[in-house]
């Protein structure tokens, strides 16, 4: 019986690991490849003012970004249309403010 219980536990543990969504930490280089932004742009983003900065983890000299936080940071910067045109229309009262 003990062997069977161990096998069941192994299978359950494997399924839990497989079904758990991964949210890896990315180096700036890996985050650059993932987002399509340059490492320089991401480095500026992590050093931006706190309410606009890309969330990161500093471990020694390494800067790590969690993939889900990079996705959220990018989603906050989503625009529709040309930003300058939208701003001009907003000033004229032709578009509701967000």
List keywords for this structure.
98 residues; mainly alpha; Arc Repressor Mutant, subunit A; three-stranded antiparallel beta sheet; 5 helices; 3 strands; 11% strand
Protein architecture, described:
With 98 residues, this protein is mostly helical. The protein has one domain (23-91): Orthogonal Bundle (Arc Repressor Mutant, subunit A), CATH 1.10.10. The chain contains five helices and three strands, in the order αβααββαα. Strands 1-3-2 form a three-stranded antiparallel beta sheet. The chain is elongated and about 75 Å long.
Summarize the structure.
The protein is mainly alpha-helical and about 100 residues long. The protein has helices at about 1-20, 30-35, 40-45, 65-75, 85-90; strands spanning about 25, 55-60, 60-65. The chain is built from 5 helices and 3 strands.
The CATH class, by name, is: Mainly Alpha
Order of helices and strands: HEHHEEHH
Bulk shape: elongated
Low-confidence stretches: none
Strand arrangement in the largest pleated sheet:
1-3-2
CATH topology: Arc Repressor Mutant, subunit A
Structural class: mainly alpha
Question: What's the CATH architecture?
Answer: Orthogonal Bundle
Cα end-to-end separation:
62 Å
Total domain modules? 1
Number of helices: 5
Radius of gyration using CA atoms only: 21 Å
Number of DSSP strands? 3
What proportion of the residues is helical, as a percent range? 40-55%
């Amino acid at each position: 019986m003990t062997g069977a219980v161990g096998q069941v536990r192994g299978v359950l543990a494997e399924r839990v690991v497989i079904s758990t969504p991964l949210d890896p930490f990315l180096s700036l280089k890996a985050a650059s490849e993932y987002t399509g932004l340059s490492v320089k742009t991401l480095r500026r983003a992590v050093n931006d003012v706190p309410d606009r900065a890309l969330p990161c983890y500093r471990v020694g000299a390494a800067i790590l970004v969690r993939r889900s936080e990079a996705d959220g940071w990018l989603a906050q910067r989503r625009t529709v249309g040309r930003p300058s045109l939208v701003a001009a229309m907003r000033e004229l009262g032709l578009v509701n403010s967000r």
